[in-house]
Design a protein that fits this description.
The chain is globular. 69% of the residues lie in helices and 8% in strands. The N and C termini lie close together (12 Å). Helix 1 packs antiparallel against helix 2 (35-49). By secondary structure, it is mainly α. The protein has a two-stranded antiparallel ribbon with strand order 1-2. The chain crosses the membrane at residues 7-39, 72-100. Residues 4-53, 70-119 form the Inner membrane component domain. Keywords: Membrane, Transmembrane, Transmembrane helix. It holds the Pfam family YccF.
Length: 125
Amino acid sequence: MRIIGNLLWWIFGGLEAAIGYFTGSLALAVTIIGIPFALQTFKIGLLCLWPFGAEVRRTDGPTGCIRIPMNLIWIIFGGLWAWLTHIFFGILLFITIIGIPFARQHFKMAGLSLTPFGRDVQLNI
């Protein structure tokens, strides 16, 4: 089921969204100050590439207390718009019965796109 879900996800816009996240990640990585944000954007792109079967987990990484200011900067400079986009498409897909599994993936991405620092994506391929 995961393979079929991921293939349908790719066909109906997931591949374009992942390419968009990867392109944004490359643009952020060009600057030195944008590298931590590029890593988070890349993480969201990976989740957008393989959403079915992937899990988002909280991590106890070495970031410590810097996680909160980095998430605030993230929210101010684009995280809120990414969150709103995933929530919008999740609600839109949740209206139809066949779109409910895809809506759940958008809600999973919405949680990650709002506060990506301190979370990790585990792909179960």
